[in-house]
Amino acid sequence: MKNLFALLALLLTGCVGMPDTVRPVENFQLQRYLGTWYEIARLDHPFERGLTRVRAEYSLRENGDVRVVNHGYNPGEGRWKQVEGRARFVLEPQTGYLKVSFFGPFYGSYVIFELDHEYYQYAVVSGPDTSYLWILARTPELEPELKADLAARAAARGFDASALIFVEHD
């Protein structure tokens, strides 16, 4: 799994920009975002290919960085994979724009551009361009209407929502 997520870091080396069509959320509250998020859907990339039951756990480090632990199950290998990284704000902490590293000093963008500001129950996240997209939720499932709405919002910003992989959580 380390090699798999190291590939992510290599792909994102120096990529802390964002798509022109995306703006990070404002009034972001890190304390409310911390905890477990389940991957509901994603665009395909080698570092997650074939994984099911994907989730991320965010917690605060003593130095103020965010500890990121990603878990995913590889049914072909019959085992769980895990990788740990760190995240830092690119702008001020009230803006949902972070950079994440799973491999040394190399960072990739983590841009929260849709968020349930009231309850922090769902989020839509971009990487440095429209080939990176994740729909996340606090629970392993979202209502079909909400999933469709979030996918449509991403499509309106230039993401290929027709290519989304909806993650199994059994």
Task: Please explain how this structure is put together.
The protein is of the alpha+beta class. 16% of the residues lie in helices and 39% in strands. The protein contains 3 helices and 9 strands; from the N terminus they run H-H-E-E-E-E-E-E-E-E-H-E. It has helices at 2-11, 30-33, 144-156, and strands at 35-42, 52-60, 66-74, 79-89, 97-103, 106-115, 122-126, 133-137, 165-166. It has an 8-stranded antiparallel β-barrel. The two termini are 20 Å apart.
In a few lines, what is going on in this structure?
The chain is α+β, with helices and mostly antiparallel strands and 170 residues long. It contains three helices and nine strands.
List keywords for this structure.
alpha+beta, 39% strand, disordered N terminus
Write the layout of secondary structure elements.
Layout: H1 2-11, H2 30-33, E1 35-42, E2 52-60, E3 66-74, E4 79-89, E5 97-103, E6 106-115, E7 122-126, E8 133-137, H3 144-156, E9 165-166
Antiparallel strand pairs: 1-2, 1-8, 1-9, 2-3, 3-4, 4-5, 5-6, 6-7, 7-8
In N-to-C order, the SSE pattern is HHEEEEEEEEHE
Mean of residue pLDDT values: 92
Helical stretch count?
A: 3
Which spans of ≥5 residues are poorly predicted at pLDDT below 50? 2-13
Question: What class do helices, strands and sheet pairing give?
Answer: alpha+beta
**Which sequence of strands runs across the widest sheet?**
1-2-3-4-5-6-7-8
Q: Main β-sheet, in a few words?
A: 8 strands, antiparallel, barrel
Beta content comes to 35-45%
Radius of gyration from the alpha-carbon trace, in angstroms: 15 Å
